[in-house]
Amino acid sequence: MAEEIKAHITGVVFQVTTKPGDTVAAGDPVIVLESMKMEIPVEAPRAGSVKEIRVREGQTVQEGETVALLE
Amino acid sequence: MLRTVLVANRGEIARRIIRGCRARGLASVAVYSEADRDAPHVTDADRAVAIGPAPARESYLDIGRLIGAARESGADAVHPGYGFLSENWRFAAACAEAGLTFIGPSPEAIRAMGDKTEARRRMAAAGVPIVPGSPEPVANAAAAERFAANVGYPVILKAAAGGGGIGMAKAATASELAPAWATATRRAQAAFGRADVYVERYVEQGRHIEVQVFGDAKGTVVHMHERECSIQRRHQKLVEESPAPHLAPAIKRGLTEAAVAGARAIGYVNAGTLEFLVDAQGFYFLEMNTRLQVEHPVTEQVTGLDLVVAQLDVAAGQPLPWSQDAIVQHGAAIEVRVYAEDPARNFLPSPGTVSRLSLPHGDGLRLESGVVEGSVVSVHYDPLLFKLIATGADRPEALARLAGALDACVVEGVKTTLPLLRCIVGHPEFRRGAVHTQMVEQGAFNG
To answer: What is the CA radius of gyration of chain A?
Structure first.
């Protein structure tokens, strides 16, 4: 069952630090958002493998929006 | 003689500069990104020029577009404000090349102070005490370890091209040094495009005190006394005041003399600030900001001088109108910065629309705001909403006015630092003037 990783703040995607198939540990950054001159990682809530990245660099995401799927 | 000033900035500082231009009878030109079409600074200025899309890299940080806007509007001078391109020597040089007066120091001074290891060397040569550390960037973790063993732990690794508290990593012991070196170089590369880092002894429980300096083209340099700026989060200031409470006269004299000597040694022209760390052992130069500071109003409040007007006059080639003896502190002034950040969630940014804004007015209160009711606080820029400055005949009076004013502030639609600021201003340690740089992060004001 895939789990949605959601942005916890509104921001612009600064960096996509993972790609589909990557293994991540709980707390690893999946993407990094930039908001008001701060870089804020969106972290994997648990260990797993990245199934899908739903955003691209430079895109604005809203708080609560799904940025990636974790398997 | 200047006639028209292009203000290469946004928010509260753009409005402040436009006001200064008006006081001198100069025309002002605002610039704005697509996100700022309806921003207050656009309405304030005599003219406004669009400079591109919302991301700062494509608008407020784009030298070519700003020079183009100056040409298009017939401006003969450019004020950079703070942040954005204010400490970019290439921008100052591009202005000069385009025949525009840059309202600030020379590109050479900006460049020398922008390289933090060069700044340390130049200041040490001028007799200014610096934090013990490596005179040059360190080549690798082993070299960092040798310097650290020499100056003693804890140490902090800082980006040579850095400043503003960005890209720093602390090591409490030798075992933490290699990971700290890796972190600092990675951050330095990402933020400044240059991985060079240097080592400094980490000053614990120090106070951050800075000195405002001002130079003119004739070589006169004066200081305008000190500002206490120890209350910070993420190495960014939240509260500033002048005079600094309980500052020993000998230290104060040492700081101001060192600041003037340092500025004189680099032939500094226009407004600048030398930042120092002060601890029980003495004081040490940290860095120089070659621009107007966010917290300049507290200096204006206690000296009665207008720093922006003085910047315009000095840029126009006039000598400084005051002798050192005539610059005196009267009373006390305290500034707080209200940011669109959530102090309850570790200062996470809180963009959104300011749905309600009610701000106090009254004796001894000064407000510098970049927003009005209905303003959209964008993810693209610094989260500063407004600054509130309270002035009194003495510190208790300024504090009482500030506490009352903070209670009266109403901001809805975005989270702000107001609850934390109210807590700080009411806190016994702060009221006693017993402050140091780690208080916010150590949780002194929680609960």
So the answer is: 11
CB spacing of B55 vs A10 below 8 angstroms: no
Q: Does A9 touch chain B (CB under 8 A)?
A: yes
Q: How many domains does chain B have?
A: 3
Angle (deg, nearest 10), helices B63-73 and B89-97 = 30
Residue B66 falls inside a structural domain: yes
CB < 8 Å to B341, chain A = 36
Q: What is the DSSP string of B94-112?
A: HHHHTTPEESSS-HHHHHH
Strands (E), B260-340: 270-279, 282-289, 332-339
CATH topology of domain A3-59: OB fold (Dihydrolipoamide Acetyltransferase, E2P) (2.40.50)
* Residues of the domain holding B69: 4-103
pLDDT digits (tens, 9 = 90+) for B85-114: 999 999 999 999 999 999 999 999 999 999
Is the CA virtual torsion B66, B71, B73, B78 positive or negative?
positive
As a whole number, mean pLDDT of residues B301-325 equals 97
CA–CA separation, B6 and B363 (whole Å): 33
Test the A interface: residue of B59, B189, B294, B379 with most A CBs within 10 Å: B379
Residue B291 annotated to the active site: yes
Which among B350, B352, B382 is the nearest to A37, CB-wise?
Answer: B382
pTM for this structure? 0.93
pLDDT of residue B423 exceeding 90, the answer is yes
Distance separating the N- and C-terminal Cα atoms of chain B = 54
Q: Cα separation of B313 and B330, whole Å?
A: 24
Q: Do B325 and B348 sit in the same domain of this protein?
A: yes
**Closest residue on chain A to B382 (Cα):** A36
> Quick one: how many helices (H) and strands (E) in chain B?
14, 22
Single-letter residue type at B343: P
Is the Cα dihedral B153, B159, B163, B169 positive or negative?
A: negative
Q: Which is the catalytic residue, given B207, B291, B337, B401?
A: B291
- pLDDT tens digit sequence for A45-61: 999 999 999 999 999 99
Predicted local confidence at residue B164, as pLDDT: 66
List the single residue in B with minimal CA-CA distance to A15.
B190
Question: Residues B427, B445: contact at Cβ < 8 Å?
Answer: yes
